[in-house]
Amino acid sequence: MFRLLPNTVRISHRYLAERLRPGDVAVDATVGNGNDTLVLARLVSPGGRVYGFDIQEAALAKASDMISRHGLLDVVTLIHRGHETMCEYFTEKVDAIVFNLGYLPGGDHNITTNPATTVRALENGLGLLNPGGVICIVVYTGHQGGKEEQRQLEAYLGGLDKKEFCVGKLDFLNRGSAPFLIIIEKKATLEGWQ
Ligand SMILES: C[S@@+](CC[C@H](N)C(=O)[O-])C[C@H]1O[C@@H](n2cnc3c(N)ncnc32)[C@H](O)[C@@H]1O
């Protein structure tokens, strides 16, 4: 067990815990089994909201049960649509967005995220971010289409204006094809700086 460098998902949760406060608004762009949604719900409670998207209804139902058992369903709005439509579902600005790309562990490995919709969701998500907000993307490349998704994602993010966004990548040099983490931070205004 590595304390500072555990798996990518846990590292992303630390960044989110650093940024999110009760009352904040967050988005889980790929709800799946709901583990990230639950983390977000805990961090923004009380008083906050989490919007969660997934294209698999069965996954959302399972996630809903799990979050309900933790007593946090009232904080969460689950939406059975692709993340590329997120602008249609809420009007607030958001403080954090999480993507966990690839297929659902334990689910159908043929249902995966897709480069075009992932990039479109990111374009929309960047427009929704509050100053000082973050986007964490856990990227798997092992599935079919995974490498192409990485290529399109990095090409798009590499072109973002460095005066407005900082884009970082945390990859492991000795863990084979383990997922890596991309973190995007939107510049804070002086008023937003804490
Ligand atoms: C790696 S899993 C997510 C794991 C999840 N975060 C968890 O904690 O269990 C990826 C998920 O993305 C979903 N997905 C694929 N394309 C999507 C899209 N366009 N919009 C939203 N979700 C999508 C899949 O259905 C799958 O459940």
Oligomer: single chain
Main sheet: strands, sense, barrel: 7 strands, mixed
- Give the total of beta strands: 7
Kindly, what is the distance between the CA atoms of the first and last residues, rounded to a whole number of angstroms? Answer: 32 Å
Q: How is the CATH topology named?
A: Rossmann fold
Rough outline: globular
| CATH superfamily label | Vaccinia Virus protein VP39
Give the overall average pLDDT.
96
SS field, number of helical segments: 5
Ions, cofactors and other bound molecules: S-adenosylmethionine
What would you say the CATH architecture is? Answer: 3-Layer(aba) Sandwich
Low-confidence stretches: none
Integer tally of domains: 1
Order of helices and strands: HEHEHEEHEHEE
Strand content: 15-25%
Report on the architecture of this protein.
With 194 residues, the chain is of the alpha/beta class. The protein contains 5 helices and 7 strands. The model has no long low-confidence stretch (mean pLDDT 96). α4 (115-128) links the parallel β4 and β5. It has one domain (8-186): 3-Layer(aba) Sandwich (Rossmann fold). The protein has helices at 8-19, 35-44, 57-69, 115-128, 146-158; strands spanning 25-28, 49-53, 76-79, 94-100, 129-139, 165-170, 180-186. The structure holds S-adenosylmethionine. S-adenosylmethionine is lined by residues 29-30, 32-36, 53-56, 59, 82-84, 100, 102, 104, 111, 113, 117.
